[in-house]
Design a protein that fits this description.
heterodimer, A: six-stranded mixed beta sheet, B: mainly alpha, 9 helices, 86% helix
Chain lengths: 248, 258
């Protein structure tokens, strides 16, 4: 469904992606792991068209992402950002229903609010949260609102950028379970980037390890602990010794 | 020597590139202004933030400036027995120059900074990326309403500032300088021409456009973290202020030379 081939991206002399090849099938939950600064976020931003790659090709359902009408293309996606990226000036329900209040998916305000409250309920938040501002919520609640916004328009493809970063272990578990449930329930294709191994085990069907600008290893979650790949073994085991330099 | 020339060349090229980026940003803003979708609610919000909430600061600036102007012209005019020109010069000075320029500068301080800080913070917290993923163009949603609101609101603020500035001169003239109230008002309006007022309002529209444009441009191009937003805010205010003063000269040259 989503295919990246030879994707390269540099920022000045910093060659972040050096030829990423990755294939995500429909309905699959792909988790990209890798250390901080290895280009995981850049990879999904390239798929969304937020960053234009210097070289390589990205296709969704066989069609080059650059040749598709932007509005219709983006309407197929939902994304949970690392920090939530909620709009400070809007109440929670308008954040969740943002896409439903404007553009091609726009619908009446009352209906959009109802859908927003339903999605909030789906991520475990009570309706009284709907009229609060994002700044009044805890980090875990903000993540849930971000998740509700990502699924508000029932997207086919959902991206999760570091979904558990900054959360306590219990809240991380809650978010991981929610992501897994929602992805299965909606039959969506999911791409998650994380360096939290608990998340990987909870969310992934398939895992890809990004290091040094390329996908070093990819395989089903069941093979993650059996692989001989030295990069994966070092990362999964959290070892200071190995091919990945501890000080980057 | 060669290194010095290379350094100068690199500096000039960088400056020209920066100007080019701003011009392209301005053209993109104008293009998005003319094509749907239009975010009316965001425009209304921008009118309130930029126009309505700037009224106190612009009004106070105009009031004190008008008063000070009356004192200055009286004391300067006394050197050649021309104290009677105070009402006329205060009116012309306010509507042609001080109203638009000081009003523009006050709006630059208040609005360019807040726009740059708001959009810059949105950028560093990935809210701009979130807008894109939600099929909403950031230029249309954030830049166009602010630039349009500032372009339409600042002339109104200048007009209000002109009236308050003239009133400041009137208060000082009648209470401190011994002018007769009726004579002051007659002298004010008899010599004031339509073009004096209109030129000031046109200047206001240009200054409003520049102020919001600089706020949006530097906000959208903000660097990372609190320091990046701080730099963007400072750069927006400096650029807006310098552009106001430079464009004021150019507009004055166009409107009144020869």
């Amino acid at each position: 469904m989503i295919e990246l081939s030879g994707v390269k991206k540099s920022f000045g002399s910093n060659h972040v992606l050096r030829g990423v090849d990755l294939n995500v099938r429909r309905g699959e939950s792909m988790v990209i792991i890798g250390g901080s600064g290895t280009g995981k976020s850049i990879t999904i931003k390239c798929v969304l068209g937020l960053i234009t790659p210097d070289a390589g090709k990205i296709t969704v359902d066989g069609q080059d992402i650059l040749n598709q009408p932007r509005d219709a293309f983006l309407a197929r996606f939902g994304m949970l950002f690392q920090g939530g990226a909620l709009f400070d000036s809007l109440p929670v329900w308008q954040n969740v229903a943002f896409r439903l209040l404007r553009g091609s998916l726009a619908r009446p305000k009352d209906e959009a609010r109802e859908i927003a409250i339903e999605k909030l309920r789906r991520v475990g938040l009570k309706p009284d949260v709907a009229d609060r501002l994002p700044a009044e919520l805890s980090g875990g609640m903000q993540k849930r609102v971000g998740l509700a916004r990502a699924i508000a328009a029932d997207p086919e493809i959902i991206f999760f950028d570091e979904p558990t970063t900054g959360l306590d272990p219990i809240m991380s578990g809650v978010i991981n379970d929610l992501i897994r449930e929602i992805v299965v329930e909606m039959g969506a294709t999911a791409m998650t980037i994380t360096h939290d191994m608990t998340s990987v085990r909870a969310i992934a069907d398939k895992v890809a390890m990004l290091h040094d600008g390329v996908i070093q290893w990819t395989g089903p979650i069941g093979e993650l602990d059996q692989t001989d790949d030295p990069y994966v073994r070092q990362f999964v085991g959290g070892l200071a010794e190995g091919p990945i330099e501890a000080v980057r | 020597m060669l290194r010095l020339l290379a350094g100068i060349g690199a500096g000039v090229l960088a400056a020209l590139a920066a100007v080019g980026r701003v011009v392209l940003f301005a053209l993109a803003t104008l293009r998005h202004m003319l094509t749907p979708p239009f975010y009316v609610k965001e425009y209304g919000q921008a009118v309130i933030n930029i126009g309505y909430f700037s009224l106190p600061v612009v009004g106070l600036t105009a009031l004190f400036t008008g008063g000070a102007l009356a004192l200055q012209i009286y004391s300067g005019g006394a050197r050649f027995n021309a104290e009677a020109v105070v009402p006329t010069i205060v009116a012309i000075g306010m509507v042609r120059e001080l109203g638009p320029v000081l009003g523009g500068l006050m709006v630059a301080a208040r609005v360019a900074s807040s726009i740059a800080a708001e959009i810059g913070t949105m950028k560093v917290t990935e809210q701009i990326d979130a807008l894109v993923t939600l099929s909403t163009h950031p230029m249309k949603y954030l830049t166009v309403p602010r630039v349009l609101a500032a372009t339409l609101c600042v002339p109104v603020l200048v007009g209000v500032g002109d009236i308050i500035g003239i009133m400041g001169g009137y208060l000082v003239g009648t209470s401190r300088l011994g002018f007769n109230s009726n004579a002051y008002l007659t002298n004010t309006f008899d010599f004031l021409e339509f073009w004096d007022v209109a030129s000031g309002l046109i200047k206001g529209a240009v200054f409003g456009f520049l102020v919001a444009l600089m706020g949006c441009y530097y906000g959208m191009n903000s660097g990372r973290g609190a320091q990046g937003v701080g730099r963007a805010t400072k750069a927006a205010v400096v650029a807006a202020s310098v552009l106001i003063l430079a464009s004021n000269y150019i507009l004055t040259e166009v409107f009144f030379s020869a």
